[in-house]
Amino acid sequence: MEKNKLFIIPVVILLCIAAVAYYNRYTFYQFLPAQLDDNYSTVNGIMMNGKDQIPFTGRLKTDLGNRIEIYSYKDGKLDGLNVAYQNGKIKEIGHWKDGMQNGVFKLYTEKGILVDEATFKNEKRDGITKQYYDDTGNIKVEVYYSEGVLNGLAKEYYQNKKLYREIIYSYGKREGLTKEYYENGKTKIEMYYELDVPNGSYKMYDINGQIQLEGRFENGEFVPESNEEISIEEIRNE
Fold first, then answer.
1. Is residue 163 part of a domain?
2. Hey, how many other C-beta atoms are within 10 angstroms of the C-beta on 163?
3. I need a labelling partner for 136 at 20 to 30 A (CA). Which of 20, 47, 51, 52 fits?
4. Maximum pairwise Cα distance, the chain
């Protein structure tokens, strides 16, 4: 039994060390060997060794004083991890393949608050993107992209993390039901879109859930249920 304990303790310690190292891998990246970019230049989109004029493979560091940028290259093209630091804190994380941005991207404020995280595919956002309020780090926007175009359910949030709005996108255009909410969680607006144009039933509620305005859109033109005349601008300003 004692032998088992003696074996387990070192394993647990090693696992803890590995977990911490993994979490801080981007912080440690600035201390890995990298060439200063003074003797390198870009020729026709290819990073070249200034002395030998051959495509560069390895890591290049740009030191701007309070900002440090490290990029990985393969055969003169961006390939691998890039990390930028501002005043010693991580500012930006990106991944590249064959000269194009591919993989996880993260952007932070100078205080270290994550404000944007996404996945890129061939230079374009692809899949889920999340953006956060820069003062609190609370979720602000959650959207989906297909090859750089909004596609799928988009959610926007209040500062208090409560849902503000839901929009469905179909390849860049609003499609189907859009809902907007009060901060207390009750529905404020329900309306429909077809090919990015308001079309279909429209309902606006007060903060207690009572209907304030009801009607429908017909190809972008609002038709109130009552005889009351109201403009689209008035609806949008509610």
1. yes
2. 16
3. 20
4. 86
Distances (CA, A) of 101 to 30, 79, 86, 189: 20, 9, 21, 38
Among candidate residues 124, 116, 119, the one with its CA nearest the CA of residue 140: 116
Residues forming beta bridges with residue 8, ordered by sequence position: none
Amino acid code (one letter) for 93: I
Report CA torsion sign: 75, 76, 77, 82: positive
The enclosing domain of 165 has a CATH number of: 2.20.110.10
136: left (phi over 0), alpha (psi -120 to 50) or beta: alpha
164-180 confidence digits (pLDDT tens):
999 999 999 999 999 99
Q: How many CB atoms lie within 10 A of CB 3?
A: 7
Report strand pairing: 139-146 vs 124-132. antiparallel
Backbone phi, then psi, for 188, in 5-degree steps?
-105, -45
Q: Could you read off the pLDDT of 77-117 as tens digits, one per residue?
A: 999 999 999 999 999 999 999 999 999 999 999 999 999 99
Beta-ladder partners of 119: 104
The count of structural domains within the chain is 1
Within a domain: residue 136? no
